[in-house]
Structures are given as C-alpha cells and as structure tokens.
Amino acid sequence: MIRLRRAGTIAALNLLVVAGLAVGATPAHAVTCAPATPAPTNNYPGTTVLATSFEAQTIAATGFGAPVTAGSGTATVSDVTAHAGKCAAKLHVTTAAGSLANFSTPLPAGSKDVYADGWFNVTAKGVDGNNVPYFRFFTDGTRVLDVYRSNNGIGPLWLRVASPTGTPTYTRLVPTVKLSSWHHLTLHAVANGAATTVEIWFDDKLVFTSRQVAIDVDTVSAVQLGAEHRRQAGDIYIDDVIIKSSKGVAGQPGTFAPITPTRMLDTRTSSPVAADSAVSFQVAGVRGIPAKVASVVFNLTVTSPRSAGFVSAYASGTGRPNASNLNFTKGQTVPNLVTVPVGADGKVTLFNRSDGSSQLIADVTGYYITGTPSTPGSFRSLAPSRILDTRNAEPAGADSTVSLQVAGAAGIPAGAAAVVFNLTVAEARAVGFITAYASGAARPSASNLNFVEGQIVPNLVTVPVGADGKVTLFNRSDGATHLVADVNGYYLPGNPTASGAFKAIGPTRALDTRNASPAAADAAVAFRVAGANGVPANISAVVFNLTVTEPKDIGFVTAYASGTTRPNASNLNFTKAQTVPNLVAVPVGSDGRVSLFNRSLGSSQLIADVAGYFLR
Question: Considering only Cβ atoms within 10 Å of each terminal Cβ, which end of the chain, N or C, has fewer?
C-alpha cells in the first residue's frame, strides 16, 4: 500500500512537548463561562466521543487533549463571542515564524465511520493563498482529509483529500464563508480506501457527497481543529463541537438510527394541503440525516381538516398506493406514526384524500440506513400495500380474533421476525380496543388501537410474526368491527447484535399511571425501558404503544429521551375524556428512561406497551 505523504502530521497527538512549543496554553485573563450549559447533541449515528460547548476554563477541560501551540500562536477558551452559552474556543495564529495553534482528540481504535460537527466563526483571515482550517481527519499521524476556508477573495469552502498517490486533491464547495459570523459545519467520512464516503453539510445544507473519495486507509484515528503552520494565520472561534464514531459503518443497511424528534413539516406556517392534493417534504440530507436513507419514521398529525378524509404517505416519485396512514373527520386533530420509504430525491409525499384542505405536521424520530438489509433485526421497507380488509368478508366478532398471513405475502419473506403495518378500525359496533400479537402466542395484556362506536381510527403496529407466519388481532369489544391492515415492512429473522438492529417483544406493559398517579398538567412522567421487563440495558431506542385515557382537558403528549431537552414535537393529541393510542419510536436517555410530557391544563392517565427495542 502506498503511504500518504506526511503533509500535516499530528506527531504524538496531544502529547507533543519539544523546545519552542507550549502545550495547553493558559488563558491570558480569567474568563466568565456558563459551566451549566448543556452539552450539545445532534442526530447523527455512532457513539459520542466528545460533546462540548467549551464552557470550562481551558480547552483540555472540555474533553479535548491539551492544545499544541508554538511561537505567537494561542489556543484559549474565550468569552468574547460564543454560539451557545458564554464561551467558545479561540485559536490565534500569526504570520510570525513558527506560529501554530491546534487541538485534537483521539478516536477509539478501529473507528471507521466518523462525524465531526461544530460551529465556527472566523473573525480574522490569514495569508492570501492559504487557508483557515476547520476539521481535519488523521490516520496514524497523517492527515487524510480536511475542510477549510480559503483566504482568497470571498472565502470559499474547500475539501482537501490526501490521495493514495500522495498528491492532495481539492474540491471547491458551493458556499462562501463570511467573516465574523457563526457557521455550522459537519464533516462525515466512512473510511474505505478508494471507495471512501464523504459528506459535508454547511449551515445545515448538504454541499458535498460522494462514495468514491480515494484515500488509502480504512480507519480514522484522530480529529484535529486548528492551524499547523504560520501561513494558516487567522482568528477562529469554535463552539458546540460533537464528534461521533463507529467501528463499523454507523448502522448496517436496514438498521435504525434514532434522532431527537424533529419537526420537518408544518403546513400551518405556509399553506394547507388542498383537497385531493399532495405535499412533499425533504428528509434525506437535512437536520443531520444522511443524504441517502432507506426509509424514515415520523409522527404525522392532521389538524384543522375542512372535511373527512385520509392521508397516504409514500416515497416521492413513486405511484400513490392503495393504502392509508391517517383517517380523520372534519375539524379533528389526530396523529399516527408512519414508516415509509424515502424517494430518490430524498423526499416523502403525503396525499390528502379529502374534499377539503388539511394542515399536516411531520415530526421525524429516526431513519433506516440505506442498502440491502442482511443483518438480523434489520428492516426492509416496502411500498405500502393492503394485506387485510375484512370489509370484503366478515368483520372481527365481539371478543374474537382474526389472524392474517404475513410471512410469504405482500413481499414479506417466510422467515420474517416481525412486521410493521398500519391497522385501521372501521364501522365499529361498540367501544373497544384491538390487541395485536404473534399467532400461537398467549394474548398479552396490552392494546394497540382504541375506538368508540362508529369510529374510523388507525394506528401503526409493530408485532412479532408467529411460527405459522401469521399475526393475530383480538377485538376486545361487545360488538363486531372491520379491520384493515396496510403493510409497511418487516424485520429480518435471527439474533440481533448490530447497532440499530431491532428486537420485537411482547408487547409488554411498562407504564400504567392508573396504578399510581396521573401525569399532572404541564408535567412529565418518566418510565424505565432499558434493563427492565426483559429489555437489555444497552439499547438506543424503544418502540411502544402510548395510550392516553381519562384526560381532564384537551392537550397532547411529547415523548423524548429522559435527561434531554423537550423537543418541539408531539406524539399524541387528545380532547377531554378521550382515549386515544399512538405508536411511538423514540431514543432512550442515558438513564435508560423515556419521558412523557403532558401538555395540557388537566391531568391525564398514560399507558405504555413496549413492542420492541433497537440495540445501541
């Protein structure tokens, strides 16, 4: 293998101490920071190596190694300007001989998939013809690729790659970087020799993507920020840095990457979706989601519909399926979780089949990695198709079951471990609920869908498949009801071990506030998922059916990882005294818990039935 030219060598990363070099320079004056500022977070997959807002007194105290400086170069924590909190890192390099300043962090051995995410503010540029560096990726002390701001003209952004020949290649990117303003940059690389993947986001827009970047290494060992010589002179402030890595690709094809619930669509801020019309929204390449994903999971809410109808979700650019994801009546606000393939343009389309306009809201909670799934517990998304409609035969009788063949049907293989489908109740003769479970298994004490007489209501279901390839639906009601099932995909069989792989269980009841105290008005209830009820401790996200009952007032519930900031998203909308369910897929907090916030002027009873989990 041809070795890379050692242009820009870290040289004993973070441990360099030789004549003329000052390691870990002390700030020239005491700074006033905000140590309680929460560490930044993002939606990228992988294990967090470092996350800091630089609110400590020194760079070394933030999680990076001691900075390396020389000559007139300085590396400090400064309270002059910051993106978040009160402080940021400041690197100062002049044109004087020997001036340099940088700091670095090593990555876990064998890191293959690396995300470096941060905010940068260049307040003074250096020498024309050179650059001010942002992130630099190193392998065994040699720079393999980096992103920088050119000091020429209007300050274009560049990608530099140390190719296997030893001669760097340069790619000018579309954005230009204004001085004295904060900009958000993310550099992502999956080291794979001549077929290395590189993605770059600038100010949350994808500006570069390729799977054919040629380097001669298969791992990345360190990330560096800052200047290595005097020609890279300038002043740069750095804040809210997050570095993540994985020893394999961060998620095998078909594995799940959960994200903090993020609002990707809200037509209330623009125009409602007209009758019998569609709206598409971008998923791939935005808000920390890679440029290519197989499918996406989001909570879809309809509100202020002018007439009864339903919404169908499908991959942009494909034919609209004969399936529904969300049914509604005039004036109703109703949510449902959606799992749907993403179009070649990175978008999802929502069709409003109604005689009136409707407002639509989409809160994304995660995505599935693109590629052909082969790992046990990975997900294969399918174009929605109808696999059950009792309206064409006989309804499910009172306190009776209907079993439907899923394995070997509608594109689902014979050995599928679990199936995902949208279940709709129609023409119910009495109040009740539906429980979905693997055929041949004992019926669990859980519910998937609650309804009242005459109601049409959907809910997404994730359920194990029985040994006979069937799923059973139990109608706990004093009256018959029709059932409709539209399949969305399935999980591969086998013992899941990969990060992001799914394991279906139960369902198992993990929370029922009726046995204790209801969730108070404008208050949160947290419940343990990891390490409880047969769920292992090392999980990244959980899937559960959430039901609200006996609410004392109108409101909604937001589910999110315990210990994190409550997002601007909703999972379940309800009116006073209503019982309504919705499937939830959400990250789990570092304490193994999920928080449910009751945004209402009255208390509500909450029930959570866990359907499965994703491995960390």
Answer: N
Looking at residue 355, its pLDDT comes to: 98
Length of the chain in residues, anyone?
Answer: 616
**pLDDT score recorded for residue 26:** 43
Residue 363: both structure tokens together: 């809160």
Under the banding of pLDDT at 50, 70 and 90, the label for residue 286 is: confident
If residue 300 lies in a helix (H) or strand (E), which one and from where to where? Answer: strand 293-303
Q: How confident is the model at residue 3 (pLDDT cuts 50, 70, 90)?
A: very low
pTM value? 0.73
SS3 of residue 231 by DSSP: helix
Question: What was the pLDDT predicted at 7?
Answer: 42
Res 440: pLDDT: 95
Find the range with the poorest average confidence among 16-20, 383-387, 403-407, 592-596.
Answer: 16-20
pLDDT: is 59 or 163 the higher one? 59
Q: Quick one: residue 38, left, alpha or beta (phi over 0 = left, psi -120 to 50 = alpha)?
A: beta
For residue 112, the number of C-alpha atoms closer than 13 Å in the C-beta half-sphere is 11
Residue whose token pair is 């770059």 = 200
- Bin 591: left if φ > 0, else alpha if -120 < ψ < 50, else beta: alpha
Other beta carbons within 10 angstroms of residue 35's beta carbon come to 12
In single-letter form, the type of residue at position 376 comes to P
Phi, psi of 314 (to 5 degrees): -160, 165
Other C-beta atoms lying within 10 Å of the C-beta of residue 461:
26
How far, in Å, CA of 570 to CA of 578, rounded?
Answer: 17
Please give the average per-residue pLDDT across 26-38, as a whole number. Answer: 75
CB 28, CB 76: distance < 8 Å: yes
Tokens read off for 256: 């799940």
The Cα 508–Cα 221 span in angstroms is 42
- Does residue 401 register a pLDDT over 50? yes
pLDDT attached to residue 249 = 58
Over pLDDT 70: what percentage of the chain? 95
* SS3 state of residue 381: strand
Concatenating the DSSP letter of every residue in 319-367 gives PPPS--SEEE-TT--EEEEEEEEPPTTSEEEEEEEESS-BEEEEEEEEE
Q: What is the DSSP string of 490-550?
A: EE--S---STT-EEEEEEEEEEEGGGS-PBPTTEEEEEE-TTSTT--S-EEEEEEEEEEES
Closest of 221, 238, 246, 222 to residue 104, by C-alpha: 222
Q: 63: helix, coil or strand?
A: coil
Rg (CA), the chain: 26
Q: How far apart are the first and last CA of the chain?
A: 34
Phi, psi dihedrals of residue 293, rounded to the nearest 5°: -135, 155
Q: Is 19 helix (H, G, I), strand (E, B) or coil?
A: coil
Check pLDDT > 50 for residue 354. yes
Distance CA 384, CA 484 (A): 13
Tokens found for residue 150: 């050119």
- For residue 135, the surrounding DSSP H or E stretch is strand 131-139
